[in-house]
Amino acid sequence: MTELVRISEIFGPTIQGEGPLIGRPTVFVRTAGCDYRCAWCDTLYAVLPEYRDEWPLMTPPQIITRVNELARDTRVLISLSGGNPALQPLAPVIALGRRHRHRFALETQGSVSQVWFADLEWLILSPKPPSSGMTTDRNALAECLEAAGAGRAACSRSSCSTIPITATPGRRRRAIRRCQFTCKSATQHR
């Protein structure tokens, strides 16, 4: 049986306006529901239960069909956001999207880890500061990194050499340069 995903909105393509992927054409799939209640949340319509009736349950094919319509059947970066998208069963969405050659980024506060984090090109962790009124669980953040594949090959190409994700920033830059020489694509890295 296909698991349904609770969606707040799907929109784009637009330009990613924040984070490490800034400037990239992106279709956003904003999931509904969140385990946090940040004091300054700017997407309460995707978080608060009183909006639940506005959140359709969608199958993975319905989600990818909508993305394909918006992207006019071209390959696109899909940003999975929320709320907290890690609360939703997104593995089938990612698998189907990959068959359409889409790439995936997930934006989360890092409170919940999922095994399918390893299937993402980018996992963007955004732990919340004290001003949010929430407490960040550092162990949960570490579990998210581990689920994304810390300590294993960071490049999804089989011809690429192994690059430890856990490397320090300087070592990471050197590793990516080495990999660019090997597989010619730093964009394949998580």
Low-confidence stretches: 151-190
Structural class: alpha/beta
Characterize the biggest β-sheet. 6 strands, mixed
How many E-type strands?
6
The domain tally reads 2
Q: Examine the secondary-structure arrangement and name the CATH architecture of the largest domain.
A: Alpha-Beta Barrel
Which value, in Å, is the CA radius of gyration?
17 Å
Based on Cα principal axes, name the global outline. Answer: globular
User: Given the structure, what is the number of helices?
Assistant: 4
Mean pLDDT: 83
Strand content: 15-25%
Produce a short descriptive summary.
This protein is of the alpha/beta class. The chain contains 4 helices and 6 strands, in the order E-E-E-H-E-H-E-E-H-H. It folds into 2 domains: 5-150, Alpha-Beta Barrel (TIM Barrel), CATH 3.20.20.70; 152-190, no CATH class.
